Amino acid sequence: MATNNNSYNFKVVLLGEGCVGKTSLVLRYVEDSFNSKHLSTIQASFLNKKINLDGNRLNLSIWDTAGQERFHALGPIYYRSSNGAILVYDITDMDSFQKVKSWVKELRKMLGTEISLAIVGNKSDLEKDRHVSLEEAERYAEKVKAMHFQTSAKLNKGVEEMFLAVAQKMLDESKEKAVQAPQLTRNNSQRTVTVVDDDVVVTNKSCCASG
Amino acid sequence: MPVLTLQRSYKYIMYATKQPSLRIKQADLKCKSGCGFYGNADWDGYCSKCYRNHMDHVRQRKSLQNQTPENSKTQMSGFTKFEEKKRQQTDKKNKYLKSLPVFRKSSNVKDSGRPERYADIMRQSTPDTDKLLVEFISTYGEWGELVRKDLLKCAQSIVTEIFCGLDTKPIEDLAEIAQNYYNKYDNRLLTNPVYQVVPSDVKDQLLDFFEKYSMMSLYRFLFCPPFTNDEDKDLAIQGRIRKLSWVNAHHLDCCISETSIEVRDLVYSAINDLLGMDSMKTPQEKLTCVVKCCQSVVKVLQHCQGGPVSADEFLPALIFVVLKANPARLKSNILYVTRFCNDTRLMQGEAGYYFTNLCCAVSFIENLTAESLNMPAQEFEAYMSGELTCVSAWESALVACEGMHQLCEHLALLKGLSERTDTVKDDTQKLMEDMQKLKEEITEKVTSVLERTPLIIKPRKTLIQLTKENVSLTSAVLIPLSANENIPTDHNNELEDQNPTQNYYLQNLSMAQINLLDSTKNKLQLELTPCITIADSSSAVLPSQSTEFLSSMDRSIDSITPDDSSYAGLSKINYDIDFSDLSAENSMADELTPEKRKSPTPSFSTPDPFSPLGSSCLLMQSPLVPSAAFPQPEAKPLKKDDFVLPFLEDMPVPEERLLDNIEETTAISLPPPMKPTAAEYTGFSKQGSKIPSIPCSTGESGFMSLPLDLPSSSKDSIN
């Protein structure tokens, strides 16, 4: 969602099953800390991050979501009008990967290609317990036109890169969108502008009259 | 006198002007307004109060008559000016609105009742919008008139447009219009030259204000509008939440520890914030309430589990709070915010996130099933139908909490009370100790004083010697004949005298001790009482005296000896006690004083009541004793010489004499400051020059209390 020429506001939702490390990822990225007890004042469910990317100012609003199965139905409320979605799974947990797949389906169905997707295999530090193979995950990601990353929030591996890549992609897509569909927005703006102009004229007149 | 007469005449004039007749009726004196109080001619016959009212009326009438438009304007205070301006603006606004093409069109097309209704909105929405305007002017006034005009104009246009669409368009379209207007205004902020000077953060605030202002004006029409089914939804969700009242934190897998008092308080504050949402009018204010509520929820979770709060924990907690709060018109509020809050705000930022979570919570509650609570469908149904009434952990926890809370409070109270009793005990202990200490101190002081005071008695001996010397000197020098004879007897007398006088002194000392404790003022009072005792003691003493002269001398000596201490005191300042004692016979002492006075005057300031012996001795050595003796001896010796021997041997006879003597001496004692004595003294060329000082000294010595007696006593002394 662009406001100024070079400043963008992006909303990114974190989706995934419970206990895959969504919150840890966000905390690691925004506060550069892992499972920190000393950050008790921070609420990790919603965080803002400002970054500069190629001279563009990006304001990332990262929304954590409740991952429990029973809240799955609430997904649409969360990811409504978001620019990016980070789908997190636990490489030691095949079920979480399956969950990611269902999320992807839902997102593509609801939002189409408007949303930038990133599939993230977290807990890469637990390589020995890996149940989701990297090849499988990457193959799937490619199939659904999503990025794929391996991260370890615990070791702070690949977290920043992942978020930056997502931001870059959202930026590219929004620029592309602006180029592709200038007419629609222009139409909208023109319509609104005309009304305003009308008002302006009238007010000017009234002002003059009163003055 | 002339002044008095003038006053009288003035009074009379007043009187006359008011009442020409001599007989004044009561009613004529009363206030003209008939309030029952007395009137005054100066106040047009009104009482003071009625006159003031009357004058106020008169003044008001005058000011009303005098007031011209210019005057009224200049008289206006800053605020009224502001109001006036605003009124003009609103007038202008109304004019402008009437001239608005959109409005005109619609009014032309639609029924003629619309304009009135429109005017009605504009008028009725003033209290809130006026407040906002004032706020705006105070906050953004620095950006100039143009910014404000433009903002108000845009707000007016959105209000107009939405209002026009109220009857024809569905609420969603109205929401879109509002969103369009927000975007438009946002663009306008960026493009319009009016806003060029405004920094970007203020522009954001202006956008918020634009939304606030327009929504404040339209709140009545857009919140839970009658052409939607929002109200039904409200009732539905309310019933649903009521049915789900049995759901507790455990059902939601929510880690709120319901039994903790702190948690309970936090949950209460969250619930309060959520309930407060309904009373707010603009979407932003409602959002603020939601944010506050959610922050409280976050605090609850932090308190319960510690560490950062993730959405996995936050959402169940929020659901729990919503279930327990069951806010009024929840759905209407949510829909109102969703529709008319600027979308960009809803999609980002803290407020947007929390509001989204609230929406999720409501949605979850609406679609709550047995599955979502992880319980068998049968049990869920039983709960919902009311067959199973689980003693809700929350409710019971509340009761338990209440009990615990009260217990804690009472315990705290008891603790405080016990602390206070302890402190009181300590204080009383300390006080008792202090009192004991004080008692000891006082007794110690008293004893020390008692110990110290006997010392004064000793000087008496030396004094006696001195007096003897003096007497001998005086008698030798001045009255050789009588003095020579008297000296031996004098010695005897002195020895005899000692005992009674000692008693007397002890009395005095006791008095002095009392005096010590008292302030100096009290000393004067005490002066008189001793006189009586002196009389007695002196009467006891006198019989032993051989000659009248001697007796007088003795008495003088006696009186002096006590005086000595006092004289010591006099020299050093404290003669109160002794003087008082000697007041009867002080005449001698007083007469003695002048010379002493002159030399030791500086030492008068020293406050020691029981002056050292040495000083008193020194003082006594001064030749004043004789001088004191002189006046009397010369006058009296002739008379009293015959009685000298009888006095010594016969007790009864002398007593009469003695009494007379006492009277005389007392008489003499009193007059010192007076002229007569002074006149007597003038006869002595040597000391006459020193006499003038006498009155002063006696005056100081505390005889001032007896000034009235002096004339008579002086006469007596002359006699």
UniProtKB/TrEMBL annotation, chain A:
> Can you tell me where the transmembrane regions are?
none
Per the record, the GO terms for biological process are: protein transport; Rab protein signal transduction
**Database matches in InterPro entries:** P-loop_NTPase (IPR027417), Rab21 (IPR041833), Small_GTP-bd (IPR005225), Small_GTPase (IPR001806)
**SUPFAM superfamilies referenced in this protein's UniProt entry, alphabetically:** P-loop containing nucleoside triphosphate hydrolases (SSF52540)
Superkingdom of this protein's organism: Eukaryota
Pfam (any one): Ras
User: One GO CC annotation, please?
Assistant: endomembrane system
**How does the entry describe its membrane topology?**
Lipid-anchor
Annotated GO MF terms: GTP binding; GTPase activity
Subcellular location, principal: membrane
Q: Does the UniProt entry include the keyword Cell membrane?
A: no
User: What keywords is this UniProt entry annotated with?
Assistant: GTP-binding, Lipoprotein, Membrane, Nucleotide-binding, Prenylation, Protein transport, Transport
Cellular localization per UniProt: Endomembrane system
Family per UniProt? Belongs to the small GTPase superfamily. Rab family.
The record ties this protein, via PANTHER family, to:
PTHR47978
* Protein name listed in UniProt: Ras-related protein Rab-21
Please give the organism: Phaedon cochleariae
TrEMBL record, chain B:
The chain positions of domain A20-type read 25-59
Keyword terms of this UniProt record: Coiled coil, Metal-binding, Zinc, Zinc-finger
Single GO biological process annotation from the record: vesicle-mediated transport
Q: Which domain of life is it from?
A: Eukaryota
Residues covered by the VPS9 domain: 231-374
- Disordered as annotated region, ranges: 61-91, 588-608, 669-696
Which protein, by its recorded name, is this?
Rab5 GDP/GTP exchange factor
What species is this protein from?
A: Phaedon cochleariae (Mustard beetle)
